[in-house]
Automatic annotation (TrEMBL):
Catalytic activity entry: Couples ATP hydrolysis with the unwinding of duplex DNA by translocating in the 3'-5' direction; ATP + H2O = ADP + phosphate + H(+)
CDD domains linked to this entry: DEXQc_UvrD, SF1_C_UvrD
Gene3D superfamilies: 1.10.10.160, P-loop containing nucleotide triphosphate hydrolases, PCRA, domain 4
UniProt-listed Pfam families: PcrA_UvrD_tudor, UvrD-helicase, UvrD_C
Organism encoding this protein: Bifidobacterium adolescentis
Designated name of the protein: DNA 3'-5' helicase
Assigned EC number: 5.6.2.4
EC category: isomerase
PROSITE patterns the record matches: UVRD_HELICASE_ATP_BIND, UVRD_HELICASE_CTER
Keywords in alphabetical order: ATP-binding, DNA-binding, Helicase, Hydrolase, Isomerase, Nucleotide-binding
Domain UvrD-like helicase C-terminal: from-to ranges: 320-600
Family the entry assigns: Belongs to the helicase family. UvrD subfamily.
Residues annotated as binding ATP: A31, G32, A33, G34, S35, G36, K37, T38
UvrD-like helicase ATP-binding domain ranges (all copies): 10-319
Length: 754
């Protein structure tokens, strides 16, 4: 490595330098937001490389693929191209690599599919139908959530059956779950779900972690291989690891093995546990709903003998005002170690507050203010971020941005890879790579329409079930399926031939995923069906498919050994924040995202919106202390994203569940010391003006119960959707009449807070 190690500690404060240089087996860098944790982690890796440690012996885990790419880039800048050889990835990506290499040891065939949440839900739905489960009462989503909880806690399906005292055998027919026994229900669905995943040679997201742990725990030669390989393990955002991830780290590090280091050993000798460095802030733990366990960071010193903890106290990101606000809010959480966080950046601007009459007005004010600081204060759009608690809130904000003609990008929402047409195309690719993938084969059976309805699907599925075949194998035996008529066998045969043709094409063009995508779009008739359609929505769907082809072409260019399977992996593992432009790329746009997505990021100007009881903190959290603490940590994350100026806004009326509700100010607003906030408008409902940007009875703040998820309409990300075009904003969507009626009811409000 051509790099002077001294350059790596330049400009660091003493604690940061100590952390970079620390020589020892277990290190925790615990510190508040913006204190340089991620920076120190990166420097520490560079430091090791500069001292002759092998790049291939390093494993660094980040929270998103985007963070991984950034860290890699930075390391290449710091120490040179050797950094390319390092494993820097998310937990999920690292596990995919491990399972691709060694998954055969636990029964995974190469080319296994990775199911996303929508695929998994489809599978649960199929199972629920077969088991006669009342899906009104037990929704597939809820069942999947329970399965996910099991997996995050490393409860295997057999354990869950035992726990529920249940003797169900996967694949068994006619089993009756005792009424009202949720444990048993979950156990049975979980067992069946794993059974069918295995038949389909597929795994879901949680399996990536759980099955890797299973692999390491059951195959000593495999775990030994990785223990020798990864001598230095780094984990960023450690506060958000769940139990399964925690055990995974332990397994990889070999901390529990009784192997003692052998000083005589060279090469393949006994090596003893790997070095481990974790970085995190327990005040920023915000993924409890995915099983994140704050104790992982709190107990680090007990978990890893002789662990060293280094605390960083200087914040390099934010002004004192912003830090004071953040510190005041988080201080209200119980059972936390108080932290001192200070900054040399000075007091800075006051926080700017604004109370709006309703969500539209709030959004309108924000758009105005953005336009104002852009022209008057010369603030670049890319330096501004708007954050909110739930995706559904983005709608009124987007409307305002569009009406004010401001460039923006929405992160999250309906993600590119979750769009119907994109998923259809990908289902074809999955089915080509892995014909056993029943969920995806069934998805495309009648897409585009080829006259294969539910009856045909049922016949094939029934035969497959009875003969232990995959769905596609059963199609190959269709002449033996009873009840088939010529009306079914003809299109079914055409489908079979199509898939064979596509598979042959894919074999010949494996290294050119973009050509396979083109072939699929063309031969399947997917593209033609959309092109023929008169529905304007379908025009944007066509654009999305062409975008998919571009993504594949880009993948080819950036990946030396590109394969179709490799391409599918990258599409399966994109997270929300991966959609953001990378460092140095100039987006030139205002960024809009949920608070969860904002973790680890920073922007000079941040708008925290919807600061109301019931919006943020979320309704559910208001009666539950532990959930409220989690919301408060989320507020802490939000506030500390801001570098120069923070805005806090709220609306006195917001539509929820189709009803206009009066909203009290968020308690987090009250927790920020009064003198830190400069209220541009403190009381809502006092000056009730007609909003100048829209019609009074139009309203766009329809809030779904969507938390972090998938049902927002934001499609501006790839620039190709109909959304954001001029057809928008005419009020044709979403003019819910409930609004007008309670519009006047919030005037009583303003007096409560002076
Ligand atoms: P978070 O808790 O939000 O993940 P963090 O602790 O990981 O934050 P970083 O993102 O590493 O903090 O650093 C915050 C900002 O401060 C970054 O812009 C980083 O470049 C800068 N920074 C950190 N340490 C220093 C330093 N010693 N000198 C100058 N800038 C620094
Ligand atoms: Mg960080």
């Amino acid at each position: 490595v051509m790099c002077d190690p001294r350059s790596l500690i330049e400009g660091l404060n003493p604690q940061q330098e100590e952390a970079v240089k620390y020589y020892g087996q277990a290190l925790l860098i615990g510190a508040g937001a913006g204190s340089g944790k991620t920076r120190v982690l990166t420097r520490r890796i560079a430091w090791l490389l500069a001292h002759g440690f092998w790049a291939s012996s390093i494993l660094a885990i980040t929270f998103t693929n985007k963070a991984a790419a950034e860290m890699r880039e930075r390391l290449v800048t710091l120490v040179g191209p050797e950094a390319e050889h390092m494993w820097i990835s998310t937990f999920h990506s690292a596990c995919v690599r491990i399972l691709r290499r060694d998954g055969k040891e636990i029964g995974l065939k190469s080319g296994f599919s990775i199911y996303d949440t929508a695929d998994s839900e489809r599978l649960v739905k199929l199972i629920a139908a077969d088991l006669n489960i009342d899906t009104k009462r037990y929704t597939p989503r809820m069942l999947l959530g329970k399965i996910s909880d099991c997996k995050n806690g490393l409860v295997f399906w057999k354990d869950q059956l035992k726990k529920a005292n249940c003797d169900y055998t996967p694949g068994q027919r006619g089993y009756q779950v005792s009424a009202g026994d949720v444990d048993e229900l979950v156990a049975v669905v979980y067992a069946e779900y794993q059974h069918r995943l295995a038949l389909a040679n597929a795994v879901d997201f949680d399996d990536l972690i759980m099955r890797t742990v299973e692999l390491l725990q059951t195959c000593p030669q495999v775990s030994e291989y990785y223990r020798h390989r990864f001598r230095y393990i780094f984990v960023d955002e450690y506060q958000d690891t769940n139990h399964a991830q925690y055990v995974l780290v332990r397994e990889l590090s070999g901390i529990d093995s009784d192997e003692q280091p052998d000083p005589q050993a060279r090469g393949a000798g006994r090596v003893g546990p790997s070095w481990i460095t974790v970085v995190g802030d327990s005040d920023q733990s915000i993924y409890a709903f995915r099983g994140a366990d704050i104790r992982n960071i709190q107990d680090f010193e007990q978990d890893f003998p002789n662990a060293k903890t280094i605390m960083l106290e200087q914040n390099y990101r934010s002004t004192q005002t912003i830090l004071d606000a953040a510190n005041a809010v988080i201080a209200k959480n119980e059972n936390r170690k108080p932290k001192k966080l200070w900054t040399a950046l000075g007091q800075g601007d006051k926080i700017v507050g604004y109370a709006a009459d309703n969500a539209q007005q709030e959004a309108g004010w924000i758009a105005n203010e953005i336009a104002r600081i852009h022209t008057e204060e010369d603030v670049a759009y890319r330096d501004i971020a708007i954050m909110y608690r739930a995706n559904a809130q983005s709608r009124s904000l987007e409307e305002a941005m569009i009406n004010a003609n401001l460039p923006y990008q929405l992160v999250g929402g309906t993600k590119f890879y979750e769009r119907r047409e994109v998923k259809d195309a990908i289902a074809y690719l999955q089915a080509i790579v892995n014909p056993a993938d029943n969920v995806n084969v069934r998805r495309i059976l009648n897409v585009p329409k080829r006259g294969l309805g539910a009856r045909a699907e049922g016949l094939v599925a029934g035969y497959a079930d009875a003969h232990g075949l995959t769905f596609f194998e059963s199609i190959e035996h269709m002449d033996q399926i009873e009840g088939m008529t010529g009306r079914t066998t003809k299109p079914l045969g055409a489908f079979r031939d199509l898939m064979h043709e596509l598979a042959d094409f894919a074999k010949e063009h494996d290294s050119k995923p973009s050509e396979v995508v083109a072939e699929v779009l063309d031969k399947s008739g997917l593209l033609e069906e959309l092109q023929r359609s008169e529905d304007p929505q379908d025009a944007s769907r066509v654009d999305n498919l062409s975008q998919l082809q571009s993504v594949a072409a880009e993948f080819e260019q950036n990946t030396p050994d590109a394969t179709l399977a490799g391409f599918l992996e990258t599409t399966a593992l994109v997270a929300d924040s991966d959609q953001l432009p990378g460092e140095g790329e100039d987006s030139g746009k205002v960024t809009m995202m949920t608070l969860h997505t904002a973790k680890g990021l920073e922007y000079p100007y941040v708008f925290l919106t919807g600061m109301e009881q019931g919006t943020f903190p979320h309704q559910r959290a208001m009666e539950d202390t532990s959930e409220l603490s989690e919301e408060r940590r989320l507020a802490y994350v939000g506030i500390t994203r801001a570098k120069r100026r923070l805005y806090v806004t709220r609306a006195a009326v917001r539509a929820q569940w189709g009803q206009a509700n009066d909203m009290m100010p968020s308690q987090f607003l009250d927790e920020i010391p009064d003198e830190l906030i400069d209220w541009k408008r403190r009381e809502a409902g006092v000056e009730r003006m007609r909003a100048s940007w829209g019609d009074d009875d139009e309203f766009g703040g329809w809030d779904d119960d969507d938390d972090f998820g998938s049902t927002s309409f934001g499609e501006s990300m790839y620039g190709s959707s109909t959304y954001g075009s001029s057809s928008y904003g005419s009020g044709s969507r979403g003019s819910h009449s409930t609004y007008g009626s309670s519009h006047g009811s919030h005037s009583s409000y303003g007096s409560g807070r002076s």
